[in-house]
């Protein structure tokens, strides 16, 4: 059966948008308020940042390991982003959805496009910055990326922002509290029993 089983009970929520827009910040706040929601841990070939732990922030893989996971169809989606590979492990997502959980993916735009094919019922929310200038300030303010990495991410962001209208919902992350409450409302809308 295709991964988007019509019998699936849980809801798949995809948060996408440019790097630095605040997806991770919003997800952590969502999980504080809804600890029973499940955040997918991605695999990546990028090097860990300070404080990131294998199996918690990401599964940190070599390029060879990542290729093996692709070959074994262990990934629900994957993409190359700013010189590294990123992908969503399939099994935990399918298992949590089957158990009726709300599952969150925090992924870039190419992967979010693939999810439309594999999980047509997923709801995909594009997070926008108030402006490109604010996005740049957030990327720099985070202090986690080199100047080269920031330049790559900003270049990528220009393309990603043009794709916003493809997604089911668009949400501007201006005031964090406002954006969080809009996001919770959007997700809970989909959790209401349907007639
Ligand atoms: N609404 C907001 N107002 C001000 N600062 C914010 C807001 N949302 C997030 N930030 C800050 O912006 C920076 C980037 O946020 P975050 O790391 O969550 O982005 P991201 O979209 O998850 O990035 P990536 O895709 O690279 O993981 C962080 O320093 C965070 O504290
Ligand atoms: N397509 C996927 N994109 C992913 C996944 N996990 C994270 N990401 C996105 O990659 C960029 C860069 O992340 P960073 O941690 O290096 O800042 C960002 O947009 C993430 O949302 C994934 O499994 N698939």
Automatic annotation (TrEMBL):
Binding site for ATP: 17-24
CDD domains documented for this protein: GMPK
Subcellular location: Cytoplasm
InterPro entries the UniProt entry points to: GK/Ca_channel_bsu, Guanylate_kin-like_dom, Guanylate_kinase, Guanylate_kinase_CS, P-loop_NTPase
Residue intervals of the Guanylate kinase-like domain: 10-188
Keyword ATP-binding applies: yes
GO MF terms, alphabetically ordered: GMP kinase activity
Catalytic activity, EC: 2.7.4.8
The UniProt record lists the keyword Nucleotide-binding: yes
HAMAP family linked to this entry: Guanylate_kinase
Cited function: Essential for recycling GMP and indirectly, cGMP.
Classification via PANTHER family: GUANYLATE KINASE, GUANYLATE KINASE-RELATED
The protein's name in its UniProt record: Guanylate kinase
Protein's gene: gmk
């Amino acid at each position: 059966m295709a991964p988007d089983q019509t019998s699936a009970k849980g809801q798949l929520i995809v948060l996408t948008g440019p790097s630095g827009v605040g997806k991770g910040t919003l997800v952590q706040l969502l999980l504080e308020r809804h600890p029973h929601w499940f955040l997918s841990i991605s695999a990546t070939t990028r090097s860990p940042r300070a404080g990131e732990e294998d199996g918690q922030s990401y599964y940190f893989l070599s390029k060879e390991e990542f290729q093996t996971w692709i070959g074994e169809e262990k990934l629900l989606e994957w993409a190359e982003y700013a010189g590294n590979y990123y992908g969503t492990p399939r099994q935990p997502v399918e298992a949590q959805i089957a158990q009726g959980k709300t599952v969150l993916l925090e992924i870039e735009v190419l992967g979010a496009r693939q999810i439309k094919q594999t999980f047509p019922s997923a709801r995909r929310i594009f997070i926008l910055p108030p402006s490109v200038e604010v996005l740049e300030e957030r990327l720099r303010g985070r202090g986690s990326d080199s100047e080269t990495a920031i330049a790559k991410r900003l270049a990528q962001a220009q393309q990603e922002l043009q794709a916003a209208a493809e997604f089911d919902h668009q949400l501007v992350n201006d005031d964090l509290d406002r954006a969080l409450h809009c996001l919770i409302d959007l997700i809970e809308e989909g959790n209401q029993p349907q007639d």
